[in-house]
Every structure is written in structure tokens, then in C-alpha cells.
Amino acid sequence: MAGVSSESLAAAQEQLEKYLPHATLSLAEELFGIVGVLDAGAGVRRALTDPTREGSEKAALVSNLFAGKVSPEAETIATGLAASRWRDPRDIGDALELLAATVVSAVAENRGPGSAGLDALEDDLFRFNRAVAASHEVQRALSDPQAPVQARTALAERLVPGAGPEALVLIRQAVAHPRGLRPTGVISRFLELVSARQRRWIAEVRSARPLTAEQRTRLQASLDALYGRELKINAEVDPSLIGGVRITVGDEVLDSSVVSRLSELRRKLAV
User: From which residue to which does the signal peptide run (predicted)?
Assistant: First the structure.
């Protein structure tokens, strides 16, 4: 996904955040269901990605399709995507699938404590992919388009006994609606999302000198207060920073290193 589609996805992900603290698996399942409807209707996809149509017109089309059939939250998310611009007809379905999987990840995250829910979800998804990779017979059975969906999903669930409800939602989706990929390929994409969410719980700290116990305690308290959650600190020494620290949490970088300040000074002098 690139260009205008990437921008639309980023905006949709930002809007989705307000739903995540109280996300439910039913919301994710509704969004996956909408993906299925879009995948089955080439005409609908083309209409929703037609650059000559107004965003409000496309949003109204989605609202007419799903009003009363899904929750208000799912309808709002879907109409928001429809009102955006997309480079390719498939992109809107890909974006909605990603948002649905993000909701599942958030449900696991909210179970906690800390990142434990995400860790368990990641483990279940890895177990599924390893089990499938270990058997050519299972691979053929899960990818057989002639086999009933219910039979394929039942087989998939037996591969991961004791898996959590979040993992089962993603596994069922990957097996029932792989969208042109192998089920393990879909699960690998879901794993990337889970890993990205896990990184929000880790602070990668690089400093020119080793942190003292007091410095680490103060840093822990400051980061926990800033992000509203108890982060795990991974600290390493990087003499190239000269002084200060560089902290990375997810996609955010907090940089007070001398190297960073010198780079900023050089940039200003070059203007």
C-alpha cells in the first residue's frame, strides 16, 4: 500500500485509537465481515475507490449497505474508510482487515497485565504457523477451496489447543478468508501487527555511559508517567552519542543526545 492509500490508512489508524481502550472481539468480527462483503463485490469496491466520487457519497453507500447490520462503531469505521481516497480497489479491504486485526490485538493488550496478553496472542499465532508448517497434509487441507469453511476452521482450532479467544478470531479469519494468501501468510501479517503493538511496551534506551541505578529509577518513573503504562526498559551503552540519551518507544523517538543537538545545529546553520 503506497501513496494516497498509505495516507488514508494512517488517518484511519489514528481514528481507530479512540475505540481501542474498550475494544471487543465482536467489533473485530464485524469489521472482518465487512471485508468479506467488499471482497465479494467488485462493483462496490470500484465505487468506493472511484476518485470522481465525493467522499460523502461513498460513505453514504457503505452506510446504506451496513446500517442496522453492524454496530454503530463498525459502521463509523467503515464509512470513514469509504470517505477516504484509495489508489487501488483492493486497498480499502486490506486497510479494513488491518484495522480489524488491530482491534483484536488491542483486546489482547487490554487483558494485560502489561504486555502479557499480547505475548500470549503472539505465542498462539506462532504455534499455529509452526503446526501448519510441520505437515504437508494439514497445509493441503487448510488451503483446499472445496473443503467446507467450517471443516477447515475446526481443523485449524485443533492445531492450537488452549489458544486464547483473540488468537482464534485471527486464525479463523486467516483460514476462512485468506484473501489470496496461504493461511500462514495471513497469520504472519497479523503477527507483524502484534509485534508492533508489543513494541509500545518497550523503551529502547541508548546512552553514552551506563545508567546508574538512580538514573534508571527516575527514567522508569518518567516514562511510565508519560505513556501511562509500565514500560520495560532495554538499556545499552552507545559511546557514539557522546552525551545524553536516545529513547525509542514504538515509533516514537525521544532524543537528547549531544549528537542529535549537533545535527540540529548543523541543519540550522545550513539554512
Answer: none
